[in-house]
Amino acid sequence: ETFEVLIRLAENYTSTLFCNAYRNMAAEAAVHVQEFFTDVGLFLFGTDASTEEFVNRFFDTLFPVVYNHLINPGLTDISVEYAECLRAARRDIRPFGNIPKKAIGQVGRSLLPSRAFLQALNLGVEVINTTDHLPFSRECSRALLRMQYCPHCQGLTLSKPCLGYCLNIIRGCLADLADVDLHWQGYIQALEEFSGALSGVHSIEHVLLNFHSLVHDALVQARINGPEVSEQVNKICGPPVRKPKQSPGCSFDQNKDNQVLKMFSRDSEQTLTNRRKEFVRHLRPYRAFYGGLADQLCANELAAADGLPCWNGGDLVRSYTHRVVGSGIKAQSANPEVKVKGTDPVISQIIDKLKHVIQV
């Protein structure tokens, strides 16, 4: 949602530029501005598109409007066919100088890591939801039942399992999750790196909220290059073919989105950067969440305190005497309490996806 509002705000700034400084072409330009920022949003949220192509398309479609109103204005508008010729010739004529190339570089450098960051966030949600709803095996369910409720059959309703006994069962039940741990740590580190890459002049906030400045520079360049551009246009497209004038004035309602956008201001890029950094900072304490989950559950909630009698699966004892295995699937071959099979295919898929993010 934050990215969606950012895109709307950047579109608002760019449309406002036309309304304030180039009012006669504002209504026509607004269509192309909206198309451009729609492309930005589609790219950010995963559509397979080229940033170079949609930036070029924006300047291609803007050129006929600029030519009609700024470079070679007339009492009538240019025809649709003539506008199409201008659009097709824009990259050869280069009316905006090197501004489109500059825009392509800035937009590409900001949107690619931003899209990767968003995709990584979505993967994080998928990992949490998947692991949260992972079903226990039958062996695990039986072991948990024996650990938690079998003492009740002997009237030991207040007893708790021995720490080692608890660890063997919970580590066995959560063996798949423990194997996620290393990749989860790498994932959080990758998020930190993505966040760092999104800061400064290449951040999506800085680039999008200042895109209107690039457009302004492009229009200034077109005005300066006007005579030369007109000469080239005449060679390629011939003299202007015009039709009755239909261009309305500025129809952009600058107040329309005030309710949604009032939370943003010119320091929005700083606000969004801080939000992103704050989010990553909150994630750091959970780097080892999956690897330490079994230990936390047993030590903090399930197991008896040191020195107290505890349940070992068959009786109330002073201490648990069986070997305590480590975490992860491989360590479970020696687990005396739970038989653990291979890695769950769902977990394998999650690990593969995390590896992909880490390698980006």
From TrEMBL:
<protein>
    <submittedName>
        <fullName>GPC5 protein</fullName>
    </submittedName>
</protein>
<keyword id="KW-0654">Proteoglycan</keyword>
<keyword id="KW-0357">Heparan sulfate</keyword>
<dbReference type="GO" id="GO:1905475">
    <property type="term" value="P:regulation of protein localization to membrane"/>
</dbReference>
<dbReference type="GO" id="GO:0009986">
    <property type="term" value="C:cell surface"/>
</dbReference>
<dbReference type="GO" id="GO:0005886">
    <property type="term" value="C:plasma membrane"/>
</dbReference>
<keyword id="KW-0472">Membrane</keyword>
<dbReference type="Pfam" id="PF01153">
    <property type="entry name" value="Glypican"/>
</dbReference>
<comment type="similarity">
    <text>Belongs to the glypican family.</text>
</comment>
<comment type="function">
    <text>Cell surface proteoglycan.</text>
</comment>
<dbReference type="GO" id="GO:0016477">
    <property type="term" value="P:cell migration"/>
</dbReference>
<keyword id="KW-0449">Lipoprotein</keyword>
<dbReference type="InterPro" id="IPR001863">
    <property type="entry name" value="Glypican"/>
</dbReference>
<dbReference type="GO" id="GO:0098552">
    <property type="term" value="C:side of membrane"/>
</dbReference>
<keyword id="KW-0325">Glycoprotein</keyword>
<keyword id="KW-0336">GPI-anchor</keyword>
<keyword id="KW-1003">Cell membrane</keyword>
<dbReference type="GO" id="GO:0005576">
    <property type="term" value="C:extracellular region"/>
</dbReference>
<dbReference type="GO" id="GO:0090263">
    <property type="term" value="P:positive regulation of canonical Wnt signaling pathway"/>
</dbReference>
<dbReference type="InterPro" id="IPR019803">
    <property type="entry name" value="Glypican_CS"/>
</dbReference>
<keyword id="KW-0732">Signal</keyword>
